[in-house]
Specification:
This protein is α+β, with helices and mostly antiparallel strands. The chain has one domain: Winged helix-like DNA-binding domain superfamily/Winged helix DNA-binding domain (Arc Repressor Mutant, subunit A). A two-stranded antiparallel ribbon has the order 1-2. Helix 2 crosses helix 4 and helix 3 crosses helix 4. The two termini are 20 Å apart.
Length: 88
C-alpha cells in the first residue's frame, strides 16, 4: 500500500455495537483495498503487516465480520477475494 493512501471507514461501521476499534480499522482497510477491483485480495500476512498486528488478529476479525454479514470471502484456485457488505 502506498504511503499516500488512506483508510476509509464508513459511518455505518463507526457506531456498530459488536465491533472493536480494530475490527473497524480492518474493515476500513478492506474498503480502501477494494476500490479498484470491487474486492480486496491481500493475504492475512499482508493485512497484518500494514496494520502492525498479528495474523491471528486479522483471522479473528475476518471471521467476526463474516459472521455479521459485513464481508463475504470467496476462494478460488488463485486467490481469496473479500467482498464488502456495507456500501459507503
Amino acid at each position: 500500500m502506498e504511503k499516500n493512501n488512506f483508510i476509509m471507514v464508513p459511518y455505518k461501521m463507526l457506531d456498530h455495537p459488536q465491533l472493536s476499534g480494530t475490527d473497524k480499522l480492518i474493515y476500513g482497510l478492506l474498503t480502501s483495498l477494494s476500490i479498484k477491483t470491487g474486492y480486496a485480495f491481500a493475504s492475512n500476512g499482508k493485512l497484518a503487516d500494514i496494520l502492525n498486528c498479528s495474523k491471528s488478529t486479522i483471522s479473528r476479525t475476518l471471521e467476526r465480520l463474516e459472521q455479521l454479514h459485513l464481508i463475504r470471502r470467496d476462494f478460488d484456485k488463485r486467490q481469496r477475494k473479500i467482498y464488502l457488505g456495507v456500501v459507503i
